[in-house]
Design brief:
This is F28K20.6 protein. Keywords: Membrane, Transmembrane, Transmembrane helix. One of its GO terms (cellular component) is trans-Golgi network. It is a single chain. This protein is mainly alpha-helical. The protein has one domain. The protein is built from nine helices and no strands. The C terminus is likely disordered.
């Protein structure tokens, strides 16, 4: 990052995107290998998931009664595939986050950057991210339970033609998704960066993320909303053309469009991870919390097995303004 730490707090969303994208130029080979090894498989799996599950679902629609051997076999295949997909998605999502956040932090501190050093750091970084993710999953379970209750309420209201109840349930569902879900996603992303760069992880990292988001909540939610919108748009086009477009488009067209959409999603995910990393420094700057680059350098070195002198925190005391 070319800007001084105290200048980062004034970045607008377009400037933040520009600053994040420019980071790739400082170590293009490393980011190319990270993209090829982690982000491309992740992006391909996200889009190809529906391409592989659609034939199985079609067979289930046309299959024998649910208690038949063929139907049970198809359901078993679907469940195994879904479980494998979730494990793959979870693993490569954390791997991509660990690799990008570590690399950006190394560039920030002036630490030598290479793909091999990033790979060496990932095992220890992955453990911290995994613990944070477990807390996120627990909180998301509670959120989804509440969301499901109001979704059922909406369906019941529509079935009973109760306009008032349907409006109330619809408003709450909208708030839960566009407000709580987007905010919680921003909290999770920032907490993931904190888990890598600071000596806290798990619920402590989420609490720290909550404090850092204050004052930058609108920017964070705007960035997350744009990211989710782009991913959703790519998914819709992929489904319409590649998955369900067999009757309208030829094999060449579907293959070409599918390849282009995978490439676009790869770029969206890469830029999203870079923005996620830089946004952490923006929040620290906004709260006038400087970062001890020496301590952060040592923290990153600890992931590589380097000698780490005893330090209580990478964060200095808040500056008095």
């Amino acid at each position: 990052m070319d800007l001084q730490p105290e200048e980062l707090q004034f970045l607008t969303i377009p400037q933040l995107l520009q600053e994040s994208i420019s980071i790739k130029k400082r170590s293009p080979r490393t980011f190319y290998l990270i993209t090829l090894s982690f982000i491309f498989p992740l992006s391909f799996a996200i889009l190809a998931h529906s391409l592989f599950t659609q034939p199985i679902l079609a067979k289930l629609d046309k299959s024998d009664p649910p208690n038949s051997d063929r139907s049970r076999h198809d359901w078993t295949v679907l469940l195994i595939f879904q479980f494998s997909y979730l494990i793959f998605l979870f693993a490569f999502s954390l791997l991509s986050t660990a690799a990008v956040v570590f690399t950006v932090a190394s560039l920030y501190t002036g630490k030598p950057v290479s793909f091999s050093s990033t790979l060496s750091a990932i095992p220890k970084v992955f453990k911290r991210l995994f613990i944070t993710f477990l807390w996120v999953a627990l909180l998301m379970f509670a959120y989804n339970a509440v969301f499901f209750v109001f979704l059922v309420m909406l369906l019941v209201a529509l079935d009973l033609n109760s306009l008032g109840l349907a409006i109330v349930a619809g408003v709450i569902i909208s708030v839960l998704y566009f407000g709580v879900h987007v905010y919680f996603t921003a909290l999770w992303h920032l907490g993931s960066v904190i888990s890598v760069l600071e000596p806290v992880y798990g619920i402590a990292a989420m609490r720290k993320a909550y404090e850092l988001l204050k004052g930058k909540t609108k920017m964070a939610m705007g960035l997350i909303f744009v990211y989710l919108f782009l991913c959703g748009l790519i998914g819709v086009v992929f489904g319409a053309v590649v998955v369900h477009g067999g009757g309208k488009y030829g094999t060449f067209t579907r293959t070409l469009v599918g390849g282009l959409l995978v490439g676009v999603l790869v770029m969206v995910n890469l830029v999203g991870l870079l923005v996620q990393s830089v946004f952490y420094y923006v929040c620290k700057s906004y709260h006038h919390q400087t970062i001890d680059k020496t301590a952060l350098y040592d923290q990153l070195g600890g992931y590589l097995g380097d000698y780490v002198p005893l330090k209580s925190n990478i964060q200095l005391e808040d500056l008095d303004i």
